[in-house]
Amino acid sequence: MKKGFTLMEVIVSFGIMTIVVASLLPIVSWLITRSKFLQYDAAASVLLQEGMEVSYNVIVSDWTGFLATFPDGIYHPAVDAISVPEKWTLVTGSETNLETRFERSILISPVCRNDSTGEIVTGVCGSGSTVDGNSRLVTTTVKWLEQQTDKTITASLLVTNLTR
Amino acid sequence: MKNRKGLTLLELMVSMSLASMVFILAGSFMAFVVNKNTKNQRTELFEQAKNDLARELTNSIKWANHIEITGSGVVADGVNFHLVSGKIKKDSDDISPEGITINSFEIKDYSLSPTLSSLQIRLEMQNTSYPLSKDNLRLVISQRKTEVETE
Question: What is the Cα B111 distance to its own chain's centre?
Fold first, then answer.
């Protein structure tokens, strides 16, 4: 007599199959979330560029006005709706919940130069180096949360006064 | 009569229900994967469009000496970026990728000084074959100052 499968064998084989499929599922879900994360990366870099471009325009358009209005510190870009026509401006502090996800901050910091060579000195200005009133370092940071971990992208731009 | 044993009704029913369970599970899984794949392809097309357009516009506007906003777009050093029937043209060349229709190309000038432009560009786009699939790009480009001025 030809023996078929018992119910027990069928159930066991199903169990094994389920384990195999279940172990493949995380790979599929990883592929899906990864494409979502790539989208976040792209959106963050657009925000980073926006921060840089706005601060560049604010700083370079009117150097002395900029120094008088915006002391070194943390800012975020905004549109000054009061002026006609509307203009870019910087507002103190960082901004959160950008596109419900991102946090952006623009750090404007002084640039220290060697008195004799004019080269940039990293760290605090000491003897032989002074703060250059015609240069500012703009560092834009975009931060967001990705699977409970912080992700950050940063870019720096050295802006110098070309109108002297 | 020869004793040929067939399947009982019960065995048949059990095997059929098991088989249908397998098919339903496998089928829905496949449908899910295919659906996600199509969505990913559409997303990738949008990302590509955004990349292409952002790069072209940024390079041209950033380093231009003269920028002028027109009714349909922007002219940077004589190169005309404008929207013609769902496509972004750089003079007469199409710079938006195949399969993407551009619905609007808005440019706002938020510059602080009239000699140094800073433009906010907003592009609304949709997948030509699947009009419900939409995306947009908001981009700020500031013209660079390349010459030293003496006051």
Answer: 28
Residue B1 has pLDDT above 60, yes or no: no
B151 in a domain, yes or no?
Answer: no
**Beta-carbon separation of B151 and A21 below 8 A:** no
Instruction: Give tens-digit pLDDT for B26-74.
Output: 899 889 888 888 888 899 999 999 999 999 999 999 999 999 999 889 9
Q: Do A88 and B111 touch (CB under 8 A)?
A: yes
Q: How far apart are CA B66 and CA B79, in angstroms?
A: 10
Q: If you ran DSSP here, which 8-state letter would residue B97 be given? A: P
- Domain range for B46 is 9-142
Q: How many helices (H) and strands (E) does chain A have?
A: 2, 6
Find residues 34-63 of chain B whose CB sits inside 8 Å of chain A.
Answer: 36, 40, 43-44, 47, 50-51, 54, 58
Domains held by chain B: number: 1
Per the model's pLDDT, the better-predicted residue between B8 and A111 turns out to be A111
How many residues belong to chain A? Answer: 164
Q: Which of A92, A98, A87, A61 is nearest to A74 (CA)?
A: A92
Which residues on chain B are in Cβ contact (under 8 Å) with A77? 140
B14 near A CB under 8 A: yes
pLDDT per residue over A110-161, tens digit each?
A: 999 999 998 998 878 888 899 999 999 999 999 999 888 999 999 999 999 9
B3 occurs within a structural domain:
no
Confidence (pTM): 0.82
Question: Which chain A residues are Cβ-neighbours of B33 within 8 angstroms?
Answer: 28
Residue B130 pLDDT > 80, yes or no? yes
Asked if residue B131 has a cis previous peptide bond (ω within 30° of 0), the answer is no
